[in-house]
Amino acid sequence: MRIVVKFGGSSLADGERIQNAAKKIAALRAAGHQIVAVVSAQGDTTDDMIAKAAQIHTDPPKREMDAYLAAGEQMSAALMAMALQKMGLPAVSLTGAQAGMMTDGVHSDARVLGLKNDRVAQEMERDNIVVVAGFQGVDGKGDITTLGRGGSDTTAVALAAFLKAAVCKIYTDVDGVYDKDPRKYPDAVKLDWIGYDDMLHMARQGAQVLHDRCVELAQIYQVPVQVLSTFRPGEGTFITAFPEDFSQI
Ligand code: ASP
Ligand code: MG
Question: Stretch 190-199: mean pLDDT, rounded?
């Protein structure tokens, strides 16, 4: 099966966590799957970078901010490829532009348009685990764009859609999607399944768990999404059109 996995910043916060995430990728590969891994910047890197830029410019030009912030995800991707290679697995890291992630030119809030090359497919044919820097793309001028805060989710679902992956597994620091905000409501219940429409509604209402554009894309391309914890066992929450869809994954 072809699987896209995505690891968020807290799942990659230090070397040990990167190695732990690499082990999850290795286990999926050992089970015979073809893996594309999308990574966020490590820990608080993006926030720290934004603070640094603010020391230089109170209203930093968006084009330059995109060029700067995209580096956070690129660093994670290269470190993840190193971790996988250290485990004896063939892996290659790609920036969004190398992966052909085409977007419009709206800096800091770009929309994904499609894949403009087949580099990721080629690397999979070479039997590589392909590690793609999340949150970024390239516009028609060849400039680096970013997809908005939390945008690595969108990178993952977009790749799953364009590469026709069977599932997009989003590894995060919560163990799934809850019926209401578990930080505010102690009686919140974790859902085993939620439909695209309800998930989109929750994302637009500000549920932090998934980027809203990622859910939009998942629905348009009918990508089955699984949100699960990097740190705790469990199947998390499946997001598909119908509850019966996920039993086949
Ligand atoms: N690193 C970016 C952010 O902090 C993108 C992401 O993590 O999805 O918003
Ligand atoms: Mg996020």
Answer: 96
CATH no. for 2-246? 3.40.1160.10
Q: Cβ(100) to ligand 1 under 6 A?
A: no
pTM to 2 decimal places: 0.97
Query: Residue 74: CB within 6 Å of ligand 1?
Result: no
d(CA 109, CA 147): 5
Q: Specify the pLDDT at position 219.
A: 97
CA of 126 to the centre of ligand 2 (A): 30
pLDDT of residue 218: 97
Buried b (16+ CB within 10 A) or exposed e, 24-49: bbbebbeeebbbbbbbbbbbebbeeb
